[in-house]
Protein 1
Amino acid sequence: MSISVNSIASRLSPIVNDLPPSGIRRFFELANSLEGVISLGVGEPDFRTPWHVREACVYSLEKGYTGYSANAGHPELCAAISNYLERRFDVSYHPGSEILVTVGASEAIDLALRTLLLPGEEVLIPEPAYVSYRPCTLLAGGKPVGVPTSADDEFRMRAADLEAAITPLSKAVILCYPSNPTGSTLSRADLEQLAEVIIRHDLFVIADEIYAELTYQGEHVSIASLPGMKERTILVSGMSKAFAMTGWRIGYACTNAEILHGMYKIHQYSIMCAPITGQMAAIEALTRGETEKDRMVHSYDQRRRFIVNAFRDLGLDCHEPKGAFYAFPSIKSTGLSSEQFAELALIHAKVAMVPGSVFGDSGEGFLRASYATSIDSLQEAIERLDGFLSRLRRGDIDL
Amino acid sequence: MLTPIHLDLLHLIEENSRRTPDILAAIVGREVNEVKAMIQDMENAKIILRYSATINWEKVETNRVTAFIDVKVTPQRGVGFDSIAERIYRFPEVRSVSLMSGAYDLSIAVEGSSIQEVARFVSDKLSTIEHIISTTTHFKLKTYKQEGVIFEDQEEDHRLVISP
Ligand SMILES: Cc1ncc(COP(=O)(O)O)c(C=O)c1O
């Protein structure tokens, strides 16, 4: 008996059927089909994982670390995470009951939403935002509510805007600062104002602080370190960005023991444990990786200054991104939409960037340009964009 | 006084000496003129000695032979290591000379167009210098990494062109 494809689709979960396809996908196909593209579209470090970490992983394989670990993560890694967070960000979590090692920060975000949400409850998401928050909220049965932010505020969510978006169904806020895609950060004062609203409305916070180490001006402040916030915050982070370990798939969630226990149960049944090889590498990175991490951060900072300057010299407004590895220039002066601009830049300048609209409506008119690429490539990309913009402004490019 | 910006400039120039003052200025976040002046100061102070490229000569058809020679000397009153080193580094075939701690005193690199030529230099020129008591010569067979540059780096960028 044959079944028609249509009838299969109609029998799948409507939540899955209704999920919009990733806006990045189309650009990925296009960029992949062209030769000689310089990509500023990459959301991961250009550095390879530092050698001492890779070497430690090889050693762990030689020693026979090839099996499952404890569900919550290898105890040595949980202890290393606890020490690291205390040392770097002044937050303290008990390794036995408040820390869960996950398959990337991605799993931690998913677990957090699935643990917190009752059907139909709302999750407030400052936008432009990382692309997974909306779909993961929907998959967890919740309702994503975007809170637009603007370049005038350097894409920082204002306490008043948050408060205006709160309804009786609001359950949690996702805070991702330093931000993918805008590179914006929040100061202690910004966070204190948000915390006041969050506490008053009794909301939870999912703090995706995966870019915390990549803070170039001032110190990163974790919202979990503010008075009254630890118990209502799920701090999510991981090894991917700061330690250049995207492929190892190690992240973690830290929160009070009750929430963590809920997340742990899902993790236990659906994932079992994060990969042991990655966990072994993460122990090495967290305990001995400071120097290499600092070297990478310093290099991102140099590229950041270079690219922001360069965009401004090209006549594009570009707010100063104080964290992560993204610049978020405005292309409104060209009169094109982000999608149009990104597509034309890809075809005519062979430079790949991600249209800001992919990250929410308030990202329209902007592009995300990742500077996790060598200075020499950035320089070449800027030269190409310069030529492209001149032609565009002269009307030499067919729209 | 060297500031962190000076140090950044040195690293950036050492990594790629073709970077222009404009680009260096953008990277360190200073005015172009200020960066030019800093570089000029460091050239005057002989902190920056020259601008050069790292070349893998093994890929070029030459008869270049390099030897590293461990040299033991007995410094005598009035003749320190420095003046013995000078007598060595003045020879154009000598590419580098360093004073070492440990089992020998000077480490020198010598280049020639054949093993015989280097051997002749060691026996005729080097070992006859007063105060040199012994030399141990090691010929270089292959270079894997030099000045922080891996010569045949097999690692590539495997990242997806676009990712979230
Ligand atoms: C804001 C943000 N959160 C989470 C992730 C996922 O990271 P991981 O590799 O730890 O799953 C990313 C990766 O791009 C990210 O940009």
Protein 2
Amino acid sequence: MKAVNKVDGRAIPLGLKNVDTDVIIPAHYLKTISRIGLGKGAFETIRAQPGNVFDDPEYTGAPIIIAGDNFGCGSSREHAAWALNDMGVEAVIAPSFSDIFSGNAFKNGIVTVVLPQEAVDRLLEVAKTDPIHIDLENKVVTTPYQDRFAFEIDDFRRNCLMNGLDEIGLTLANADRITAHERTLAQTQPWLVPVAA
Amino acid sequence: MLDSGSSMATKPRTLYDKIWDAHVVDQRDDGTCLIYIDRHLVHEVTSPQAFEGLRVAGRKVRRPDLTLAVPDHNLPTTARVDAEGNRLPIADVESAQQLAALETNAPSFGIKYIGATDREQGIVHVVGPEQGFSLPGTTIVCGDSHTACHGGIGALAFGIGTSEVEHVLATQTLQLKQSKTMEIRVEGTLGFGVSPKDVILAIIGKIGAAGGTGYVIEYTGSVFRDMSVEGRLTVSNMSIEGGARAGLVAPDDKTFAYLKGRPMAPKGEQWDQAVAYWRSLATDPGATYDKVVTLDAAEIAPSLTWGTSPEDVVPITGLVPDPKSFADPSKQAAAQKSLDYMGLVPGQKMQDIEVQHIFIGSCTNSRIEDLRAAAAVAKGRKVAANIKQALVVPGSGLVKAQAESEGLDKIFIDAGFEWREPGCSMCLAMNPDKVPSGERCASTSNRNFVGRQGPGARTHLVSPAMAAAAAVTGRLTDVRELMA
Ligand code: SF4
């Protein structure tokens, strides 16, 4: 996974509360065989509305989304995180996130920044005209106007994000323990290796 | 490890504790353990993005020899080859894509693949035990929640999501926290016409669809000791419908007899070693469970569901319940919604309810014993005129061949059933076998959720014999009346 120290750029001022995973990526995109390409279905229902923020040329290629409370609620589909990845979104700022979504986002290298509603409101204003800067190392969000909003993030997750470590990478860092377990098994339960049928 | 038996252990342990302890690779301070996975079953729906993830990261499958791939969910159950033996194309583009992806991913990562036209193909949870790939005392995972099925032979088996599938492919392990244990003890003798499906429906009716949340269930008592291995697989399969991630039945002589000689099962001296180890896994006398639930076998009747949750269970002799009869106000509201969806009114006799569809199949009830039970009822009878479709879908090609050698296919076809190719079929609306909106199905599958068998479809979960009984009378029927 790509290491993330900071996310810098324009932010889509979505602002909506309770954006569920069905809104992020509708169910009819689930019968796919790839994580790539889901961006085209992302926020389909919102994009059907004329003048929506996603199709506003002002925010083309924006790496950040700013939303309201409870972002990513609903079904556990990991496709929601894949869709955001595919759109080029690297971070979401909101007052709260669903647990499952923030887990899925983390697994896919997306930073979820939790800030109080007042801070989110201020950032929604700034986002209309200026870029926003998320500094993961110092756990702070800043704007070109001296705004400075500190945020909390689990140390384990922050460390993984900053070093580009995914869960598989972390487990593989323990590969010698797995190998040792396999060696013991080969001695004690040799029948576990299936007979090649 | 071989010292998992009772002799070395100081504290008495349950079957679950023993399997868990033998699979801990590493433990974090917060109690999360890295658990070794002995067996990984892979199907076409939840695996494509996992393989893609490996490819993107340049990773390999750590133990392809412990992994087995079989397509089942999307595969149509109609003929797969034409008269000349050529593969027939699959009409649904996305299903065809998922199937093609598995067909290339498995060999390119060195995984054994049982293909759509192979004799051994079938539903993953039928194929695993049947091939001797699933073994007692092992940890088994699959990207499908009914993986709990394999607990019937005494394996700790549970469903996982796509990123976990990728994690297991790459590392052969999973990060897990230990579950609590629940003993479900059923003592006594089952009454005439009562099958393993009725037992598990009665259990879920008692504990509720969330009753097992956070637990792994061990099924104990004379009913499970006396039950066939096929029956135990049926019971354990639906553990997840009671909220439990996994179910277990202690492996015993029946289990060993069932597995002996299966293609991928241990052979010779290793078999004897394995059996000795498996015997040591039974729960020690004096071990305690976090929760104990008991049922009296004599009180279990042929049962079925009336609503849209698997906990909505009544005996076939019962009535559609009045939502007001439930104490919990949220259950009252849910029951009313269920009845509206199901098109039923309180007080209606379950036996008066007409059905239009019959589905005998799914990983819950598509093994040979299930087909024999259904055929015994169908024999010499005809599917009723109001039945639009009656499907019998064997769980695997080997089950199908066995049934045909016993003449069961003929019994079904003569009665007016369709005899299909193996797959998940009408269990879930992902392939062409669906129940049309507003129509009603007596189904041997495991989920009666809204839309599970097709948008607007109405499902009543029943045993294979009860499904056959409903087919010949055209309504939900007490199979005992036909079993004289
Ligand atoms: S038969 Fe149904 S429950 Fe079983 S694996 Fe297939 S879809 Fe899942």
